[in-house]
Amino acid sequence: MLFRQNIEPSCSYCRLGRSIGNGEIACVRRGITSCSSSCRRFIYDPLKRVPERPQFSDKKKAPEQLTEEDFAI
Fold first, then answer.
1. Of 63, 73, 11, 64, nearest to 42 (Cα)?
2. What is the separation, in whole angstroms, between the first and last Cα of the chain?
3. Adjacency order of strands within the sheet including 31-34
4. In a 3-state reduction of DSSP, which class is residue 66?
């Protein structure tokens, strides 16, 4: 979920950091850090977080697997 309450801190979606590529973040407070690190100044920015793709079961088809027959009445 994108807006859950207990987000594990990560520099990759902190308001103070900017991605510079190669898994590195330029942090306003700490300088260059890795995406997986974090500090006590972590401020969650939901717009930077990329949610995981949903897993489809046998009953639900992935969007690319749908055909016109699935939409016929």
1. 11
2. 33
3. 17-21, 24-27, 31-34
4. coil
**Cβ atoms within 10 Å of 10's Cβ, excluding its own:** 18
Q: Which residues pair with 14 in a beta bridge?
A: 44
User: What stretch of H or E contains 23?
Assistant: none
In the DSSP assignment, the letter for residue 16 is: T
From first to last of the 73 residues of the chain, give the pLDDT tens digit: 556 667 788 888 889 888 898 889 898 888 898 888 888 888 888 888 777 776 666 566 677 777 888 788 8
pTM: 0.56
CA distance 57 to 59: 5
